[in-house]
Amino acid sequence: MIPKIRIGTDRSFPLVNYLFGPGKANEHTDQHLVASWNDFAPDPGPNPERHQVAKLADQLDQPVKALGDRAPTKKIWHCSLRTAPEDRHLDDAEWAAIARRIVHATGIAPEGDTTACRWIAVRHAPDHIHIAATLVRQDGRLANLSFDRPKAQAEARLIEKDYGLRQLTPGDGTAAQTPTSQERWKAERTGRTETPRETLREAVRQAVAGAATEDEFFTRLSEAGLRVKLRHAPSGDVLGYTVALPGDRNVSKEPIWFSGSKLGPDLSLPRIRRRLTDGPADEEPPRSRTSPNGPSAPARSRRDAAGIAERATAVLDEDDDEAAAQLVGAGELLDALAQTSPAASRAALRDAARTFERATRSHVRAENADIRALRSAARGIVHAGGALGRGEDGGATAMVLSTLVLLTLAAARWHSARGHAQQAAASRQASDHLRAAYRQTSATPMRAMREMGQALPEPERRRHEATIRAALGEPESRTSTGRQYDALAATLAEAEKAGHDPKALLEEATSWRELGTARNTDDVLVWRIRRLADLPSIPSSADKPKTGASQERPVPGRSGTRVTRPAPARPASDPRRPAPRR
Fold it and tell me: In terms of domains, do 334 and 362 share one?
């Protein structure tokens, strides 16, 4: 159940007239009162005459009118209560009881207080009611609305439990402001899939991801096609900023501006400045360590980000508050990936970044925490440009996504341990989106590695599988019909060919944290080892050994029979050489 509270300056008539009217799109049906301050308020009923609405509004306003010129500017309190789509429909008696609980909890009309504010509860749809109240008590005093919104939310959580409704996670006041009903209706009318507020919030987050300076942040906003307006002090210093979507105008044909703080608590200019100061990215974007035959800049930036994300995951597993800052850096990393990802995984990554945004904010503050590595990783991804999603680019994207799945799961545990229900739920949901993106990006490289593993000579394959089972603590008696380690065996073979000790690499990879939370430990180990050994993210087809026990090919003999001769040796390929683009 979601309570939404608004305060108005008008008297009761405009609101009451709307509640008993047809609605903006004739959506109101069977409008009627379910409860009131004295249970005797006149009910205009559906499709009432104007004088019937005026009679009810006048009774509500009597305490306000009695104050005359001393009446407060804010006169009306409006709370809507809506159940979830899957909830059962409550009857009038249940809605009346719920309305009384809300006005009692918020201080509008405490139970037993006969001189409290006047209020009514109107039902004009099966799934919600509206509570309208005047803010002057019947004894002439003003209503005490201290913390009315969190009180209403807390009471709604109890109502959900008592009435068997869908139980929402309790908030802590750190969530971004949701779009208003008017914003949603306008988006529907104009054919937009989301409101301008939501579009602007994502654009601002992406602009700040990895930004090194305030000027760069504002430049990115302009390059994203947003209208940007700065607010200056008399001295010329910038005090704040507002943004607007081109073409989004009000009835006066003026742009509709949103300040950063209206988009998200962490997007105000002071909070962005703190992020730039506390964890600055380098002035110059990180240079990818590439050679003419090495991985592309997008691939290298993703490989570097995977290692940095792995270290951030270990910090999240520690029981201290420094993780709060790591979550902010992880959010920037997701925003950077979402704007540079291949088309196939872009939607899932955008969903992951948007969802995880809720997990980056809580009341926990990490003082002097260093997130320069994460912000530099985000900066490197943004400046490296978009990845094609094929070959080395696709494998490197899968590599960093595999790590980010574990990072978001670690974030969920960290938030759960501190009672941050909404943030923990957002982290788990983000991990689901990341898994979807990972499945899309990892299909080709993992298939190539499995085929490479299946083509290994049987003795070499058995040797690597024995190493894997020993490292994972699995029995040696596993039959050939059991779980296969094709991709992992292929990776160990590549590493050994490149001069690494396969056993040592595997032991190091399995010693890192978060392996137990992975749904597929083989995939996690494959990407960890390939990064540790600096192997290509997708093996070259030239590196695959030929199938067969002796790798020989038949040739015709003199007597007509077929004999075998060794196949001509091929020069060993460089395991660091990336796969050809497809």
Answer: yes
The pTM for the full model equals 0.76
Cα(403)–Cα(396) distance, integer angstroms: 11
Classify the C-alpha dihedral 168-169-175-176 as positive or negative: negative
Give 161's strand partners.
none
Task: Encode pLDDT of 231-283 as tens digits.
Answer: 999 999 999 999 999 999 998 999 999 999 999 999 999 999 988 886 544 55
Contacts of residue 340, Cβ cutoff 8 Å, sequence gap at least 6: 298, 381, 382, 384, 385, 386, 387
Domain end point (choices 259, 278, 297) = 278
Among 278, 307, 337, the domain-final residue is 278
Same domain? For 129 and 257 the reply is no
Q: How many beta carbons lie within 10 A of that of residue 245, not counting itself?
A: 20
Residues 295 and 273 in one domain: no
Residue listed under structure tokens 């990180």? 286
Angle between helices 12-19 and 50-67 (to 10 degrees): 150
Report the CATH number that the domain containing residue 141 is assigned in CATH: 3.30.930
Torsions phi, psi for 32 (to 5 deg): -165, 160
Pairs from 138-142 (Cβ < 8 Å, separation ≥ 24): 138/63, 138/114, 139/115, 140/63, 140/66, 140/67, 142/72
CB 59 within 8 A of CB 37: no
- φ/ψ of 416, rounded to 5, equals -60, -40
Element (H, E) at 227: strand 227-232
Could you give the strand order of the β-sheet that contains 32-36, starting from the edge strand earlier in sequence? 2-8, 76-82, 128-134, 119-125, 32-36
Residues 302 and 274 both lie in one domain: no
Both structure tokens of 441: 């990006």
Q: For residue range 494-526, what is the model confidence (pLDDT) as tens digits?
A: 999 999 999 999 999 988 766 766 778 889 999
Q: Which domain holds residue 195?
A: 190-278
Average pLDDT over residues 290-303: 77
How many separate domains does the chain show? 3
Q: Which tokens sit at 439?
A: 């499945």
Same domain? For 264 and 144 the reply is no
Identify which of 334, 332, 440, 338 has the alpha carbon closest to the alpha carbon of residue 389.
Answer: 440
Task: State the alpha helices, DSSP H only, in 418-515.
Answer: 421-454, 458-472, 486-497, 502-511
Q: CA 435: distance to chain centroid?
A: 13
How many helices, marked H, and strands, marked E, lie in the chain?
19, 10
Token pair recorded at residue 58: 């006048």
